UniProtKB/TrEMBL annotation:
InterPro entries documented for this protein: ComplexI-like_HydComp, NADH_UbQ_OxRdtase, ND/Mrp_TM
Subcellular location: Cell membrane; Membrane
Protein name stated in the entry: NADH:quinone oxidoreductase/Mrp antiporter transmembrane domain-containing protein
Topology class, membrane: Multi-pass membrane protein
Source domain of life: Bacteria
Record-level GO cellular component terms: plasma membrane
Native species: Sulfoacidibacillus thermotolerans
Length: 619
């Protein structure tokens, strides 16, 4: 009976996600008001409590991505959830995943402030429950509390931003914000920008607001981690794009702020990903790196928009959305593959893995596709969007050599290239240490492949990531519909459509060169060297017995980078931001403990003073 309930809920999640996918597809060309109904009209006279659901081209892209990831995670959950069926709360995990997907859909469909905040809070609360699902582990509870605290701080800033927009536009509807928000004073627009930037950056895990992400994502079940990293982080990106490029009139310094913090997060996140050994923490830091990259290219788009460089702004915005789709695809694939590794070995550390290529072939293929994608190796999907990021950054630097914007665009280029090198190291480290060689633990030596449902989801995810890289022209043309009118560009601005190396042909040409070049090298080797002569001999180990742990470990693999860039390992945010804030809170709490003196008279005085203050504020 438990299995029937478990499978039924996941199949319902698949059907619901398919509906979200088609809803997003239909809204890409035909924006539609789906639902608008006032709530609590008998109690409150305000129009704030109105449930408003609508599709617009920008939200439709994120809805389609959510639909695809929802299908993959639900199918994966059919096999992965078998581990939890013995638990009394096993079915609640499946229900939580369904509600989590529904909450994110509400965020993307929101047509006013109330609906957005309702979906945002529902998404945060449900994801918190999913993070602490394995609450018997102490570190899980701590991760959940930290995640909930950080996300609520971000919500406060979003409420302040929506309050200011309402005060000066007289409405809570997003359609009104589109037409009136740009008429506000530059100072007020900058205040709204800062509030939304902090609120959304907290959810996105941008450094130094990232401390919850490396703890919460590894704590959650793997298919939940895939949804959190793949699409939940994109709700913050969606909100930032909506506010800064569709509602407000951005200025150059907004873009510079995005570039600086985004570039820093990309480099530092990639560096920490090369140092961690827990496979899910590695992927969590990789998500920080990818979100930093997305923030950086948003900054390029904002700076170009402020300078009226419409083509560069359009290319950068298109690259942002494309990269968000690609990151959702390969990061969910990587988390699913990591979950399969943990499922088959009961080990999380790379130092205790190895030899999985022979024992887990399906997981190995999926992990290889995901790592090639995250490393931006053509023709996999990460390459094409990062190529657009490179073009936009290079063009902005070239056209603004005479001012400070060109300097920051050049810094963005450096951050992109340096991050790419670190990510390549991370990918080689995961596959080389985790899948090649010999198993370094009993769990790795006795590894077994994942159940059928998990393998099916892995192969579907790998195919999805590959298709996003093989058909970039189709995707870029579709993404044109999401851009504001002045930012729409012709492909001729990026490539010559009649050229041999047009973007529609480039992935296939690269794939042909890769396969053809490898075959040509193979023929040359066979021609000049002849058939391979194999001589099997024991490995020399100074006269001792050869053991698996003698091979390169994950820690040893990354030691050269750690020693070269040891300054990047200084916990600046924790030491100079969070620790002083935590000490201040503790001291303040100890001071206020004095008011709890046990006297009823004192408590009545406190209550009386509070009522008087509230009456004054309300009046």
């Amino acid at each position: 009976m438990q299995r029937i309930v478990h499978v039924s809920i996941n199949l319902a999640t698949v059907a619901f996600s398919v509906g979200i996918l088609f809803l997003g597809w239909s809204g890409l060309e035909h924006p539609t008001l789906l639902f608008a109904h006032p709530l609590f009209s008998d109690i409150f006279s305000t129009s704030f409590f109105t449930l408003n659901l609508a599709t617009v081209p920008l939200s439709s892209v994120f809805l389609m991505t959510l639909g695809v990831l929802g299908v993959l995670s639900a199918i994966y959950g059919i096999g992965y959830g078998e581990v939890y069926r013995a638990r009394f709360e096993g079915a609640w995990l499946d229900v939580g995943v369904f509600l989590f997907i529904a909450a994110m859909a509400v965020v993307f469909l929101a047509g006013n402030a109330f609906t957005f905040l309702f979906g945002w809070e529902m998404m945060s609360f449900v994801s918190y429950l999913l993070v602490v699902y394995e609450s018997e582990r102490p570190e899980v509870n701590m991760a959940g509390v930290l995640y909930l605290a950080m996300t609520q701080i971000g919500t406060v800033f979003l409420i302040l931003a929506f309050y200011l927009l309402h005060q000066f536009t007289g409405s809570y509807d997003f359609a009104v914000f589109v037409h009136l928000a740009r008429t506000l004073s530059p100072v007020l627009q900058s205040v709204i920008f800062l509030f939304t930037f902090v609120g959304f950056a907290l959810k996105a895990g941008i450094m130094p607001l990232h401390i919850w992400l490396p703890r919460a994502h590894p704590a959650a079940p793997s298919h939940v981690s895939a949804l959190m990293s793949g699409i939940m982080l994109k709700t913050a990106l969606y909100g930032l794009l909506l506010v800064n490029l569709y509602w407000l009139s951005p200025t150059v310094w907004w873009g510079v702020l995005f570039i600086v913090l985004g570039g820093s997060s990309a480099v530092l996140g990639a560096f920490h990903a090369t140092q961690e050994t827990d496979i899910k923490r590695i992927l969590a830091y990789s998500s920080i790196e990818n979100m930093g990259l997305l923030f950086m290219v948003v900054g390029i788009s904002i700076a170009a928009f402020a300078l009226r460089e419409w083509t560069i702004a359009g290319v950068a915005l298109c690259a942002t959305i494309y990269q968000a789709m690609n990151h959702a695809a390969f990061k969910s694939l990587l988390f699913h593959a990591a979950g399969s590794m943990i499922h088959g070995t009961h080990e999380r550390s790379l130092n205790f893995l190895g030899g999985l290529l022979r024992r887990m072939p399906y997981t190995s293929i999926a992990m290889a596709v995901g790592l090639l994608s995250v490393a931006a190796v053509p023709p996999f999907n990460g390459f094409m969007s990062e190529w657009l990021v490179f073009l936009a950054s290079a063009d902005l630097a070239r056209t603004n050599l005479h001012n400070v914007v060109g300097l920051f665009a050049a810094i963005a280029l450096f951050a992109l290239l340096f991050t790419g090198a670190l990510v390549a190291l991370m990918a080689a480290r995961i596959f080389g240490v985790g899948f090649q060689g010999e198993g370094r633990s009993p769990g790795a030596r006795a590894a077994h492949e994942a159940p059928f449902a998990m393998r099916l989801s892995l192969l579907m995810g790998a195919l999805y990531a590959l298709l996003l890289g093989l058909f970039p022209a189709f995707i870029v043309n579709a993404l044109q519909l999401t851009l504001p009118e002045p930012l729409r560009f012709s492909p001729v601005h990026l490539w010559y459509t009649g050229n041999l190396f047009a973007i529609s042909k480039l992935p296939f040409i690269l794939l042909f060169l890769l396969v053809g070049g490898g075959f040509f090298v193979f023929l040359l080797l066979r021609l000049f060297i002849g058939k391979e002569q194999r001589h099997i001999a024991p490995t020399w180990t100074c006269g001792g017995e050869r053991m698996a742990f003698m091979s390169y470990s994950a820690t040893g693999f990354s030691q050269p980078v750690a020693r070269t860039f040891r300054s990047l390992m200084i916990p600046v945010a924790r030491g100079y931001m969070y620790r002083p804030a935590w000490d201040f809170v503790l001291k303040t709490a100890q001071y206020f403990r004095r008011i709890q003196n046990g006297s009823v008279r004192s408590y009545l005085v406190y209550l009386f003073v509070t009522v008087i203050v509230l009456l004054i504020v309300v009046r």
